[in-house]
Design goal:
Radius of gyration: 29 Å
Distance between the termini: 85 Å
Shape: elongated
Number of helices: 13
Strand order of the largest sheet: 11-13-15-16-18-20-21-22
Length: 480
């Protein structure tokens, strides 16, 4: 009874506020407060909140007719209120425990989070919103992490019921639960759905054989059945404007190539799925901001920037898939990215690393040397500095090293005890390199050496016979 009274009360307040009938809102609040005085003491806090709201509405009634700036502010408040309701609405099932990371990434994918001065990234801003929602009891804290940050939270039933009511009214969201016959509207229609949550069973969607042209977010929960082979292709073909695709815990192994047609996709979550690889068309997703591959079986991953000036944010890949063996990154990186825990901790099984166009000012080998298990490194235009030094003990398992277009490098040094198992080495496009790298004679296991597109003085100083005197074990030598 108490919950129904609260829901009814809050619904009246919302209706009054939206209809601009402030006096009616104040009158309703007064009556609601009288009702709450007869409820148990646990409801007293709500009574106090409504008293504050009564005073707030009174101020609005006095100012809204004569203060244009106030009316602008009031419109912004109303817009923000709807955004908050939207971001914590019934897209999550009842009593669902929500992880901070998942919720934050969904908000970002939906475009609810905007950049603010003084804050480093969107996730930091979103976490601030989450903390505020918990502080105001719109979300209930379930668990904190070791740093005191929100780790798990849930929505109070009363707040959730109000959010459901509003989302129905605004056609904000639909729930599809074939097992229990639950749908957020009477007859299920995909045509007008903007956000869709699927619970328990997913295969029934395909039988609807209907377009979903307005769907922007698709989230799966507690799916027990194994999706049919063509289901994801069906969803992608019917919802080409998707911005959020959350398939967490879905028992799928293959992502169809048609995912590359989702040109507007910003958020792709595949956590705890059986996906082993991503199709090549994933590189078409130029608007992708967040990719979650935690606890998947993905071994090969390619990451591309949309253009040469875009800075890739690798923290959106935190953490990297635990089984990752090959990583290809094409785009600019912020200084220090290769030193970040999100990269180093997630790359413990990485064997092949391909980095292009990062244009770093700091020597990348200093960071990559911590990945001692790498067997292949390919670098293309990644370093703007003038000197490279390979320290003793670095890269004990590296077999292949390719470096291309290090346009400013004038000097390369190999210390004794570095690259002990290197078999193939390529220097290409070192326009300022005039001499053979110092200490190259220490690379005793080297079998192939390519020296191409170096400074003009290099070819005049070094002939094949001179190099072979220093490295007699080499079977293939190219100087071009």
């Amino acid at each position: 009874m108490a919950e129904n009274a609260v829901i009814l009360a809050l619904a009246k307040v919302v209706n009054a506020f939206e209809g601009e009938d402030i006096k009616y809102g104040i009158f309703s609040l007064f009556n609601i407060i009288l009702v709450f005085t007869s409820l148990p003491s646990c409801i007293k806090s709500i009574e106090n909140e409504l008293l504050v709201m009564k005073g707030f509405f009174s101020q609005i009634d006095l100012r809204r007719y004569n203060d244009e700036a106030f009316n602008v502010w009031l419109g912004q408040v109303r817009k923000l209120a709807y955004i908050i309701e939207d971001t914590i609405d019934d897209m999550f099932p009842e009593d669902c425990i929500m992880k901070r990371s998942r919720l934050v990434r969904l908000w970002i994918g939906e475009g609810f989070i905007e950049e603010e001065r003084g804050l480093s990234n969107l996730e930091e801003i979103a976490e601030g919103y989450l903390t505020e929602l918990v502080r105001r009891s719109l979300l209930q804290l379930v668990e904190k992490n070791s740093f005191g940050r929100v780790r798990l939270c849930k929505m109070h039933d009363i707040v959730r019921e109000l959010a459901i009511s509003l989302s129905k009214k605004e056609s904000f969201h639909e729930i599809y639960d074939e097992n229990n016959g639950i749908q957020s509207r009477g007859e299920f229609e995909f045509s007008y759905t903007r956000r869709l949550s699927v619970i328990n069973s997913i295969n029934g969607i395909e039988s609807k054989d209907s377009n979903m042209p307005h769907v922007r977010s698709f989230i799966a929960f507690s799916i027990s059945d194994i999706p049919s082979p063509f289901l994801l292709h069906f969803i992608f073909s019917k919802s080409r404007f998707l911005t959020v695709l959350d398939l967490q815990d879905l028992p799928i192994e293959v992502i169809p190539e048609s995912i590359g047609d989702l040109f507007n996709l910003k958020c792709l979550h595949l956590r705890h799925t059986n996906v082993k690889s991503l199709p090549e068309t994933i590189s078409n997703l130029r608007n992708l901001q967040s990719l979650d591959l935690t606890a998947t079986k993905v071994q090969n991953l390619e990451i591309f920037s949309r253009n040469k000036d875009e800075i890739l944010q690798l923290e959106n890949l935190n953490p990297l898939p635990p089984n990752l063996r090959k990583l290809h990154i094409n785009g600019k990186l912020e200084e220090g990215t290769l030193d970040s825990p999100s990269f180093l901790d997630g790359a413990k099984d990485l064997k092949v690393f391909d980095l292009r166009w990062s244009q770093l000012d700091q020597n990348p080998f200093l960071s990559l040397s911590r990945l001692s298990w790498l067997t292949t490194i390919r670098l293309f235009r990644v370093y703007n500095g003038k000197n490279i030094c390979f320290r003793a003990g670095w890269f004990p398992n590296l077999k292949i090293l390719v470096m291309k277009d290090f346009l400013n490098v004038e000097k390369v040094v190999f210390e004794e005890g570095t690259l002990m198992n290197l078999a193939r080495l390529r220097f290409e496009g070192f326009k300022e390199l005039k001499d053979l790298p110092n200490g190259i004679e220490f690379l005793k296991s080297l079998d192939l050496l390519v020296l191409s597109e170096l400074h003009a003085k290099f070819r005049s100083r070094w002939k094949k016979i001179d190099v072979l005197e220093i490295l007699p074990q080499i079977s293939i030598l190219q100087i071009e």
